[in-house]
Structures are given as structure tokens and as C-alpha cells.
Write a structure and sequence with these properties.
1 helix, mainly alpha
Length: 60
């Protein structure tokens, strides 16, 4: 095995590692965005319930 092939394999290994890291970061970002959307939806539901309760209490 020549020095260039060792260096080439090391470079390929570093590149593969960076690609994997990039992929997992994108996957985590996607999961985070889905969770953020779910939290936003739940907050809207909570605010709506509070508003409905407030209106109901005023009517009584």
C-alpha cells in the first residue's frame, strides 16, 4: 500500500464522516421542526380553550 492510497483512504474516511454528520444533523433538524410545529399547535389549542372558558364564565 502506497502513501497516497493511505492518505486517500483517510480523506475518504473524513469525507464519509462529514456526510454522516450532515445527514444526522438534517434528520435532527427535521425532527425538531416537527416537534416545534406540534408545540405551536398545542399552544393554539390551549389558547382557544382558555378563550372559550373565559367567554363561558362571562356568560354565567
Amino acid at each position: 500500500m502506497s502513501t497516497s492510497s493511505v492518505s486517500e483512504k483517510a480523506t475518504q474516511s473524513v469525507l464519509a464522516s462529514k456526510l454522516n454528520k450532515c445527514y444526522y444533523q438534517a434528520e435532527q433538524l427535521t425532527k425538531f421542526m416537527h416537534l416545534q410545529a406540534e408545540v405551536d399547535c398545542l399552544l393554539e389549542q390551549l389558547q382557544s380553550m382558555k378563550t372559550e372558558k373565559s367567554i363561558t364564565n362571562k356568560e354565567e
